[in-house]
Every structure is written in C-alpha cells, then in structure tokens.
Design brief:
Blueprint: H1 2-43, E1 49-55, H2 60-76, E2 81-87, H3 94-104, E3 111-114, H4 119-124, H5 132-136, H6 146-153, E4 164-170, E5 172-175, H7 177-183, H8 191-200, H9 225-234, H10 245-259, H11 272-280, E6 286-289, H12 294-301, E7 306-308, E8 319-328, H13 335-346, H14 349-358, E9 361-362, H15 365-368, H16 371-374, H17 377-385, E10 389-390, H18 398-414, H19 420-431
Parallel strand pairs: 1-2, 1-3, 8-10
Antiparallel strand pairs: 3-8, 4-8, 4-9, 5-6, 5-7
Helix pairs in contact: 2-14, 9-10, 10-19, 18-19
Amino acid sequence: MGGKKMSGCKKALTMILAFALSITTLAGCQSGSQSISSAAKSESPNQPIVLKHWFWPDSDMHTQVMQSMVDDFNATNGKNIKVELEIHPWDGGQYSQDLFTAAMGGGAPDTAGFKLTSTPLFTANHLLEPLDSYIDSWEDKDDIQDTLYKTLRSVTKDDNLYLMPWNTQILYVYYRPSMFQAAGIDIPKTYEEFLQDCRKLTRDTNGDGKTDVYGYGIRGSKGGQEPWGSFIYARGGSFDNLTSDASIQGMQDFIDLFQDGCAPPSAPNDGFNEIIANFQSGLTAMTIQHIGTSVNMVEKFGDDVGAFAFPDSPQGRWTSMGDTETVMFSSSKNKEAAFEWMSYLATGAGQKTWCVKTGNVPVSKTVQQMPEIQNNRFMKISIEGAPFAGILPVLDTTTDWINNTWPATIQAALLGKITAKEAMEQLDKALYSK
C-alpha cells in the first residue's frame, strides 16, 4: 500500500513538473511570439492602414477596372495599405458638390478623383493637402511632363500643387461612318462644313415623315459647357469675354442646331448618359465626348464608329482638355499611405491598367510609349486635339457656374425663352461676378 502511495506521489510529482515545464515553455513561446509580433508590427502592422477613395465611373466597365486596380494595389503594395473604394455618380458635376459637402461636414475620404475646376472652392476652405513635398522626393516625378504640373499648379493663388496627375481626356467628335456614307458626306474639314453636315445627317430614314436620325447630340444639361465651348471659339469668341459679338454668334449657332431640329427634342435636358445612349441607339449621328467612352463604343459598333478633332475655322479653334486628377484631403490621418496610392495611379501599375483598358490618355511618359497606346486610333485623335485644347477659367465661381448657371441658362436659350445675347450676358455675369 505504501509503495503504491509512493508510486502515486511520484506520478503526481512528475505531472506537476511536466505541467510546470509546459507553463514555462508556453510562456517562453508567448514571449517569443510577442517579440516577433512587435518586430513585425514596426514593419508591417497587423491592422492594415485603411484609405477611403471616392471615384466616379463613366460606365460599369470603369467601375470593374477601378475595382481590379484597388484589388491589385491592396495585394502588392507591401505596406499593409488597404484602399476601400466608394462609388459616387458624376451626375453632371454634382459629384464635386457632394464631395465638398462631405468634406465640410467632416466626412472627407483620404483621397478622391477630382477635377481641377473645383480646386479654388476646396482650397479656400483648407480641405486639400499640398503635395509639393511628396512630389519633390518622389522617384517618378520626371515621368510626368513639367508643363502638366504647371497647369495644375496655376489654378490656385498660393502656387502650391494640390492635384496629382492621373489622366487627361481631349474632347473630339464621335461619328458613325455608315451614316456619313448614307448621307454622302465625308469628315468635315471646317467648322462651316460641320454645321452643314449636322443638317445633312438629320434624316427621315423610313419615310414616315418624322426625323429618326439627328445630326448632332447636344448636351444641354450639366457637363455640356465643355463641348459647347468649341462653338464659341469657332466664331472667334472666348471664355474671356462671353458677351462679345463673336461669342454670341457661337451661341446662336448652338441654338439654331436645336431649333432647326438637328438635335433630339430632349437635348435641353440631356446629360452624359443621354447623349451616349442616343448615339449608341442610332438616334444621333455625331456627338462630342472623350476617349474614355471609346471602349464601349467599339464594343457596340466595331469598325462603324470613328472620331475626328473638332474642325478648324479662320476665327478660332478650341476643344476641352478634360482632366482627372487625384487629391489628398488635409484631414487624412494616413498621408504617406495616401500618396503611395496616388502614385500607383499616376505612374504605377494602375496608370497602365487604367489607360490601356479604358482608353484614357496617360500622364506617364513611359505608359504613353506603350504599343497599346500608340496603336489606338482614338488616342491619335486625342493627341491631334491637344495643341488647341484648353480649360475653363478656374475661379471661385466656376463650380457653381458649371453645376447651376450654365445648364439653366442654356436650357432657357434652347427653348427660346431668352435670346443668345441675353444668355451670354447672364453667363458672363455669373462667371465673373459682375
């Protein structure tokens, strides 16, 4: 019995020692684990650095491409940065107002897609982070033309750079070659020929006495100020003086196309979605937009879609340089990570993916030389229009002018409620706060 007790004691002692050893070993493992975790935390934190990025898509395809870029960046940045994409509609420029409202209310994202015309409004309220110090030490700085930096820097009074280049879009005219052939016309070489062709392409194709193809798809709602500008400059007018005789004549041309029945009846209310839908349905033979829509156009029409630069005239020539940049908000708590994401879009894999798959014009010199870019016929037309492309005046009033004054005034003019002269006086007064 005593031997059994001793044997039991030995077993108990053995168990106690084993248990103590296991505790010591476990403690040692935990200590080692904490040490490794601590070291890892300093280089790659367990919790990802989360960035919120606002983005407006021109189509479902654009959303898919951007999401694939976000996924790629999240998987490859090596710094445990995680971008979360928030989709917001452009809505003729309402996007910028929504972004401003969110930022003023304390709900700004870390980064966002942006238009340079909105810069004064945002910087006046100290919402954007200057990027000069980031770009000065950025190894890819020289992969972007210095002239583009200068353009982006010129929109603010403090000479700081708040906009990170991403891509540009030069507006041009989309047309249907089959419709041109049916109407017996070629690509117009002059502005006067363009106006004539708008009328020749407006047809009753089935003989029922009703127009079923309109020559030109006017964008009378939000966002239409950019294609409209080509008409103003073609007569020798300019944004610098919207009340000049030449500017008023350009406006009259625009009104006449609608009132003469060369644009769909819905034109005063047509925005981006409507002009693209009208063109793709065959309702219009021409419309003005940029290369960002080219992929969808080719998917729809194949070879039966082409483009040409807005035609020249002796008085002047202009098209809009659409711009898309990214910005960092001053409220971001992760600014270094935010710039990492912005640089991925500007010169990294994101630049290549976005421009090749969507057809937008790259800002990266390296990407511009890629065969996929050089062999794109729509890219060539964009490049052709670049020498006479410009931007609207960037003033404190510009955002409101684009979103509210311009569409309301244009709609009234197209519908005959005000004259071309009255319309231009109203537009000039609102833009320059006279």
